[in-house]
């Protein structure tokens, strides 16, 4: 029975995630499988990979053939490197301690690169947020200046109307005084 390590699709339309399964190559893609050894979610940045390292190594050492995508995932997780080191120990190229030392060095380097990538992604997101906030503050300042200009124009207009009303009231009072003075003058003249 030719055994494959491949992806089984799950999730909804346009938002797929995958189970990493060991299955007979003749079985349907999302159908019967021998063992589920992990999951892969490409929707996150960076993609989330949850893999049972020991079981994946077991299947690779026993001849299961990974598909191209799964081969890439196994390579990123170090399963193929571990297989290479185990085969080197079997052939006598180096001992078990040297293989473990090489693998630990690779894992440490991989963790550093992952942390560097995550920090660069977070820094980019932070810079984008800062830039967005600066643009938004400039827009808000422009809106506030426009609102203040409109308020000043309305206040000046209201002040002008108040002065006009005051001038009209003074003019009315002056005309009433002159009319009252003329009325007294005509009364005195009439006497």
What features would you highlight for this structure?
191 residues; 5-stranded mixed sheet; 2 domains; single chain; alpha+beta; S16 Ribosomal Protein, Chain: A
Write up what this structure looks like.
The chain is α+β, with helices and mostly antiparallel strands. It has 2 domains: 3-93, S16 Ribosomal Protein, Chain: A (2-Layer Sandwich), CATH 3.30.1320; 95-172. It is built from 4 helices and 5 strands, in the order ββββαβααα. The protein has helices at residues 53-61, 68-77, 79-91, 96-190, and strands at 3-12, 15-24, 35-41, 48-51, 65-66. Strands 4-3-2-1-5 form a 5-stranded mixed beta sheet. A hairpin with a 2-residue loop joins strand 1 (3-12) and strand 2. The longest helix has 95 residues, at 96-190. The chain starts with a strand and ends with a helix.
How would you concisely characterize the structure shown here?
Helices cover 66% and strands 17% of the residues. It has 4 helices and 5 strands, in the order E-E-E-E-H-E-H-H-H. The radius of gyration is 42 Å and the shape is rod-shaped.
**Number of DSSP strand runs:** 5
Distance between the termini: 140 Å
Order of adjacent strands in the largest pleated sheet: 4-3-2-1-5
Any idea what the CATH architecture of the largest domain is?
A: 2-Layer Sandwich
Rg on CA atoms, Å: 42 Å
Count of all domains: 2
CATH superfamily of the largest domain: Ribosomal protein S16
Average pLDDT over all residues: 89
Broad shape:
rod-shaped
Low-confidence runs of at least 5 consecutive residues: none
Distinct helical segment count: 4
**Percent range for helical residues?**
55-70%
Structural class: alpha+beta
Quaternary form:
single chain
């Amino acid at each position: 029975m030719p055994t494959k390590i491949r992806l089984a699709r799950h999730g909804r339309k346009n938002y797929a995630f995958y189970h990493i399964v060991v299955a007979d190559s003749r079985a349907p893609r999302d159908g019967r499988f021998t063992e589920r050894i992990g999951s892969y979610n490409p929707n996150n940045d960076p993609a989330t990979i949850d893999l049972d390292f020991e079981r994946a190594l077991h299947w690779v050492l026993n001849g299961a053939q990974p598909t191209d995508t799964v081969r890439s995932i196994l390579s990123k997780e170090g399963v193929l490197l571990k297989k290479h080191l185990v085969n080197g120990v079997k052939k006598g190229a180096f001992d078990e301690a040297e293989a473990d030392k090489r693998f630990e060095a690779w894992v440490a380097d991989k963790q550093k690169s992952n942390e560097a990538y995550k920090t660069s992604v977070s820094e980019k997101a932070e810079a984008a947020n800062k830039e967005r906030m600066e643009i938004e503050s400039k827009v808000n300042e422009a809106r506030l200046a426009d609102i203040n200009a409109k308020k000043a124009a309305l206040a000046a207009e209201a002040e002008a109307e108040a002065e006009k009303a005051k001038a009209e009231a003074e003019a009315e009072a002056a005309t009433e005084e002159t009319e009252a003075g003329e009325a007294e003058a005509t009364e005195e003249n009439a006497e």
